[in-house]
From TrEMBL:
CDD domains linked: M23_peptidase
Residue stretches spanning the membrane: 20-37
SUPFAM superfamilies on file: Duplicated hybrid motif (SSF51261)
Cofactor(s) the protein needs: Zn(2+)
GO biological process: proteolysis
InterPro entries cross-referenced by the UniProt entry: Cell_wall_metabolism_enzyme, Dup_hybrid_motif, LysM_Opacity-associatedA, M23ase_b-sheet_dom
Entry keyword set: Hydrolase, Membrane, Metal-binding, Metalloprotease, Protease, Transmembrane, Transmembrane helix, Zinc
Ranges for domain M23ase beta-sheet core: 289-385
Domain Opacity-associated protein A LysM-like: 64-143
Originating organism: marine sediment metagenome
Stated name of the protein: LysM domain-containing protein
Length: 431
């Protein structure tokens, strides 16, 4: 009886081993077959397709800049790139709905990209500072689109002190005249940058510099600025409305920097004679009132109207020579005397905007040299332009005030603690 039981147990154990061995061999066979299926040789058609796919890699393109000379045509420029006259005419026709290539003039530059064999591939042309035309050959036709110029915008900050004038102070910081003029224009509603400036005045500017292919090409926005003039601090912060995308400058509380009138009709000049009730006339040698401010400047210097208004007179008037009178709201009137001439379109009845060029400095009428005599009237009575303090225009829109204050506050913090300027902006740099 014991022998039979042992035999039965032994048989059952043998069957279990065989079953496990069968499962193991089956699983191994499945793995091997799967692997072989994945690694099976490619068919000839598949090989060809794969080779074609791998070999379709564009060779490096060669770029050449072509400056259009007087008398040259687009055909003259593009023929060396293996394009026939018919193909060039087709290119011009295909591109015309996007941009008329007839607008390109002598002296302008084209960037032409070609294969190593010299075959035309694409063309680029700068339409203006912000946009360029891109033309590319594809499937027997020519596609064109206008693209944004890929500028690299970097942020920089400078701190400076006035020793002689603003331009020299900005140059001392290795920046250009344009930045100085932009800063002066920013505060032009409150500060006359010749009459009001004093030695020891200071400024701080956070601004954008524009680069293309690693080269500096110009200034963008002043993001924030501080100017201390005769102990009085003025602040300006750039803000773009999220809905309209329009931009302007405001003080820390959201008040507009703009006022009804600019402080000066000339961007950068010097005062040679001030408003006076009794002044010795330089030609007639008699004492008489001088109801304006004289700004000395070279002949032809641009004169800008100081506020929105309507031209009421543009012509010659006795001792005043060539002059312009402009009527403004709230019963104000401004006058610009001793001009050399008038800007295009300026005539009686013409509506003008504050800051618009209306004429040019001259020495017409009773004048000892080139200068502008600038005058203001209120209700028909002369007032001193240098003491005139006009009202500001509309402040920042209330619904965006919190957003503005948050951004302006970060700039203000950088002004107070310049050592943290690097943490204020991710793209701040020192050239």
């Amino acid at each position: 009886m014991q022998v039979k039981i042992k035999t039965y147990k032994k048989k059952r154990k043998t069957r279990r081993i065989h079953l496990l061995l069968f499962i193991f061999l089956s699983f191994s066979l499945f793995i091997i077959l799967t692997f072989l299926h994945k690694e099976k040789p490619l068919l000839e058609e598949e090989k060809d397709a794969q080779q074609q796919e791998v070999s379709f890699v564009l060779p490096p393109l060669e770029e050449k800049k072509e400056v259009i000379r007087r008398g040259m045509t687009l055909t003259d420029i593009l023929k060396p790139y293996n394009l026939s006259t018919a193909e060039i005419h087709a290119l011009i026709k295909d591109v015309k709905p996007v941009y008329d290539l007839a607008k390109i003039r002598a002296g302008q530059e084209l960037r032409i990209f070609s294969s190593p064999q010299g075959d035309f591939f694409s063309l680029e042309y700068d339409i203006n500072e912000e946009n360029y035309l891109h033309i590319k050959k594809k499937e027997g036709t020519y596609g064109a689109e206008i693209k944004k110029t890929p500028y690299d915008i970097r942020i920089k900050a400078i701190w400076g002190i006035i020793k002689e004038n603003l331009i020299f102070a900005v140059r001392d910081k290795n920046e250009g005249v344009i930045l100085a003029l932009n800063l002066a224009e920013l505060f032009a509603w409150d500060i006359d940058f010749y009459a009001d400036l004093r030695r020891g005045d200071s400024f701080k500017i956070i601004f954008e510099k524009k680069y293309l292919n690693g080269e500096f090409v110009g200034y963008e926005n002043i993001l924030a600025a501080e100017f201390v003039n005769q102990g009085k601090k003025s602040l300006a912060f750039h803000y773009t409305y999220p809905d309209t995308k329009s931009s302007d400058y405001f003080d820390l509380e959201g008040g507009s920097l703009r006022k009804q009138f600019l402080k000066s009709p000339i961007r950068y000049s010097r005062i040679t004679s001030r408003f006076s009730r009794r002044r010795l006339h330089p030609i007639r040698k008699v004492y008489r009132p001088h109801y304006g401010v004289d700004y000395a400047a070279s002949v032809g210097t641009s004169v800008q109207v100081t506020a929105d208004g309507t031209v009421t007179f543009a012509g010659r008037r006795g001792a005043s020579g060539r002059m312009i009178s402009v009527r403004h709201k709230n019963r104000y009137e401004t006058m610009y005397l001793h001009l050399r001439g008038y800007a295009a379109g300026v005539r009686k009845g013409k509506k003008v905007k504050g800051g618009q060029e209306i004429g040019y400095v001259g020495s017409s009428g009773e004048s000892t040299g080139p200068h502008l005599d600038y005058r203001i009237k209120k209700d028909g009575r002369y007032i001193n332009p240098l003491l005139f303090n006009p009202e500001p225009v509309k402040p920042l829109r209330a619904e965006f005030l919190d957003d503005f204050k948050k951004k302006a506050g970060s700039y203000s913090l950088c002004f107070e603690a310049p050592q943290i300027i690097f943490s204020c902006f991710s793209n701040f740099f020192i050239p």
